[in-house]
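Structure representation:
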Amino acid sequence: MNRRLEGKVALVTGGARGIGAAIVRRLHAEGAAVAITDVLAEPGRALAAELGERAAFFAHDTTDEAAWVATIAAVTGAFGGLQIVVNNAGVFKPGAIADTSVADVEWQFRVNQLGVFLGMKHAQLPLRAAGGGCIVNISSIAGQLGFPGAAAYVGTKWAVRGMTKTAALELAPVQIRVNSVHPGFIDTPMLDNNPPEANQAGIEATPLKRIGKPEEIAAAVAFLVGPDAGFVTGAELTVDGGWIL
């Protein structure tokens, strides 16, 4: 595989499984040293052990501002810097507005929205020190249209889309590019939260008539953080098999 990211250090939140783990593997394969951060310690450590050199796991609650400060300090201390940050950690709990508790709304807000905000706030410091870098925020097609039964989740993903564009404008003067990726129906543990009929409906609504693979999202992220995307910032890269066409 092309080692376009040789010499770069990447931090991937929610990197222990699913889309996050696929992103970790892809960036590592392209030459980056990768910090895997997650609240899931066992699979995170196992992935780091599998990859071996240039990979390490860091326990990290992305909703905690102090944890962001400590994790970035640990990552830069271990690898000597930081040039790439992928805010991937996310949660989903379906529910109609009338049936969704405030606790469920706050949980999704804290992980999906606040966690991304804190990542951009604190990651920009080492990226500035490196003379520039890349931030990729994982949103969703739920950040581009509405989905009945998912108002809390949809709200957070629209917020990620808007924060990404704002950060792209703020950070362009210091050569930090900020983009968002918008997956459609992807084969991850998150789909386990849906009833089977909802997942089947998702396949039927996708023109390519299949569920996407985590590796296909990882490829999109690898493009955005690589040299071929050097003039791309504030963009939304939708990877959904044609869902929102």
About this structure: Residues 102-129 form the longest helix (28 residues). The chain has a mean pLDDT of 95.
